[in-house]
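FAQ
Q: What does a multi-component entry look like?
A: The components come first, one per line:
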Amino acid sequence: MKRVFPILGLLTAVLLSYALYEALVAAPTEQTMGNVQRIFYYHVPSAWTAFLLFFINFVCSIQYLVRPNPVADKLTNWTVIAIAIAACIAAFVIRPLPEGMEPSSVATTGLAIAGLYFLIKKCFSQTRTDALAVVTAEVGVVFCTVVLVTGPLWARPVWGIWWTWDVRLTSTLVLWLIYISYLMLRRFSTSGQTPVLAAALAVFGALDVPLVYFSIWIFRTQHPQPVIGGGGSIDPRMLHVLLINWLAFLFFAGLVCWSRYRLEILQREVEETQALEAMLEPGSRR
Amino acid sequence: MNFLYAAYAATWIIHIVYLGTLVRRYQRLSREIDELKKK
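Then the predicted structure of the entire assembly, as tokens:
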């Protein structure tokens, strides 16, 4: 594994450089907005990456809550399988699908949810899912911060204002605040119940992710309409650049999560050792 | 163009600052591990 990390790091650096070149130089200039539209190549992939990380946090939190209880665990397994089957059936049966949904994306999302759920379950123990939940929330907040900073930097020259209390923008800010409160809870609460409380908060927090995503279809918003899916259209060259940037950010997020996960595990081991030492020598610690 | 560069710079500043906090946490943890080994 020690050899894999530098190789992946190098690959990510190359990919990020190529993606930056594509975004700043190779991508065609948008006719109405001009060069400022290129912010889109960082803003949108950062948002997608943050959503993915919050979703992994949600899956880990659910698993942390249900795994100690075999009945709840089995029930959740079957619910996840039912979601995947229902998504596949809905993709081929329901016509027309709600706005913003396409048959292929509905089926893929259902299968991806099930795949990710069982992959995490197979690869991580209950305590490790808690560690992964912390990691994905923290890195997700970083990407969400990028979204909240780059958005106004795009809005100022295009809309003439930095911010508006639009549904998409406000729900994204609320999402960011929920995960900031999640991290504060993890950082400052000393109760033994903290992981359970944090997992419950994360489950509620994750409910905001679909609201953020679908808000531009459900509500009349100032935020631009979707360019991918739901009837949106985008120049194929722009789509290529967008996907390259997303891939680069996914690799980058994966590496950061990996490093942060190793740090989290190490930190927990040190804390356990310190607690054990304090128990053995109570006088020396206080 | 200024807004474009500001957005790209802000993105990388945010990521670099976060990576910096990770490095600092790792260094602090390494010190704690060394202290534990000494005992």
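Q: Is there any commentary attached?
A: Sometimes. For this entry: Chain A touches chain B through 30 residues (CB under 8 Å).
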